[in-house]
Amino acid sequence: MKLLIANRGEIAVRIIRACREMGIGTVAVYSEVDRLAPHVLMADSSFPIGPAPAAQSYLDMDKLLAVASESGANLLHPGYGFLAENADFAERVEAAGLTWVGPPPGAMRLMGSKTESRKLAKSAGAPIIPGLMEPITNISELETFVDEHGLPVLLKAVAGGGGKGMRVVADRDELAGSYERACSEGQAYFGDGRVYVERLVDSPRHIEVQVVADREGNAVYVGERECSIQRRHQKVVEECPSPVVGPELRKRLGEAALAIVKASSYHSLGTVEFLLDTNGEFFFLEMNTRLQVEHPITEEVFGVDLVQEQIKLALGEPLSFRQEELVPRGHAIECRIYAEDPLRNFAPSPGRISLWVRPGGPGVRLDSGVIAESVVPLDYDPMLAKLIVWAPDRATAMKRLHRALSEFQVRGVSTTLTLFRALVGMEAFRKADFHTGFLDKLLTSGDLEKLHGQQDPEAEKAAMMAAACLATASAGRLPDDLFAHGDDSSWWYEGTRLLHGRFPR
Amino acid sequence: MKLLIANRGEIAVRIIRACREMGIGTVAVYSEVDRLAPHVLMADSSFPIGPAPAAQSYLDMDKLLAVASESGANLLHPGYGFLAENADFAERVEAAGLTWVGPPPGAMRLMGSKTESRKLAKSAGAPIIPGLMEPITNISELETFVDEHGLPVLLKAVAGGGGKGMRVVADRDELAGSYERACSEGQAYFGDGRVYVERLVDSPRHIEVQVVADREGNAVYVGERECSIQRRHQKVVEECPSPVVGPELRKRLGEAALAIVKASSYHSLGTVEFLLDTNGEFFFLEMNTRLQVEHPITEEVFGVDLVQEQIKLALGEPLSFRQEELVPRGHAIECRIYAEDPLRNFAPSPGRISLWVRPGGPGVRLDSGVIAESVVPLDYDPMLAKLIVWAPDRATAMKRLHRALSEFQVRGVSTTLTLFRALVGMEAFRKADFHTGFLDKLLTSGDLEKLHGQQDPEAEKAAMMAAACLATASAGRLPDDLFAHGDDSSWWYEGTRLLHGRFPR
Amino acid sequence: MRWVVRGGQSSHEVEVERQGDEFTVEIDGQRHELELVSLDGAVASLRFLATGRSLQITYHHGSNGSWRVTVGQREFDLEVLTPAEAVEAVSAARDSGPSRLMAPIPGKVVGVKVKPGDEVEPGQPLVVLEAMKMENELASDQAGKVAAIHVVAGDTVEGGELLVELE
Amino acid sequence: MRWVVRGGQSSHEVEVERQGDEFTVEIDGQRHELELVSLDGAVASLRFLATGRSLQITYHHGSNGSWRVTVGQREFDLEVLTPAEAVEAVSAARDSGPSRLMAPIPGKVVGVKVKPGDEVEPGQPLVVLEAMKMENELASDQAGKVAAIHVVAGDTVEGGELLVELE
Question: According to CATH, what is the number of the domain C95-166?
Answer without folding.
Answer: 2.40.50.100
